[in-house]
């Protein structure tokens, strides 16, 4: 099987299931987060925590709503990652297939507790895994193994079709069997003048003079698109990491001041969503610092992935694209304040998939000692 083999229908179907399903989940979760918290959801949460077995844990409605909000944000981030992995899997990326399998498996387990409404998404996730690891899919993602197996099968069929060599010898009569040893006739008749040693054997007719084959040209120059993506990601990630580190350090120094300072702001002083949640200054401070800690980790990861792209790492490019998608979702929740981050993340995704960037990542030089 060659690298230009067409994509199997099972791989296409699996990527469509994962991509479309994740996109629907992303839109649903984003709409729910944009209108947080509706009154009917708060009523449902109160009813659930007042009934056993949750009634024994003395849970607060505001605490459960916060957990639910964080779960929706995590689900939206996973949905973005699934969409990106589905695109890469459709482009024959083995690591993306493994990542999409993991995401689909985790999603199926997460949808099962939702009851009847979660059975269809869970079944779609399981079907995606089955299609991704079918025989046709394995042969498409691993053409080398498929070629070796085809060669072994052809050799086995040829061996089975050929008659045994000893069968004809056993059936032939004794007088027709060839002698056990027959000397090869001499190249020069006996008594003839012997030719010089170099003239005894003619040169090989198919011999050709050795010509060194030049190695294929590789793109070693860093294209401007990759450099622009690295600089954009590094600047945005560095700024976010700096702000997040300052907030986390300030909260560690005085945990109670952060929430009180936030509630004193005009935009949050009379915010109806804060009043519906019933958060105190301490609860608001904890929620903000947890969010900032998560942003700090993601920003450091994005900065590391951007720097690794300078070493022509395609894995770093995938990680950066996934993190850029997560940044788009998180920034969309922040509405106007997140517009610069959304623009930067979209620019990074576009730049790393330009033709010059694709050629740069495909022309990765081989390690020392590795033969062509």
From TrEMBL:
Membrane-traversing stretches: 12-34, 67-88, 226-253, 287-308, 320-353
Compositional bias of kind Basic and acidic residues: 145-155
Residue stretches of biased makeup (Low complexity): 156-174, 201-211
Name of this protein: Uncharacterized protein
Sequence segments annotated as region (Disordered): 144-212
Entry keyword annotation includes Ligase: no
Keywords of this entry: Membrane, Transmembrane, Transmembrane helix
Source species taxonomy: Bacteria, Bacillati, Actinomycetota, Actinomycetes, Propionibacteriales
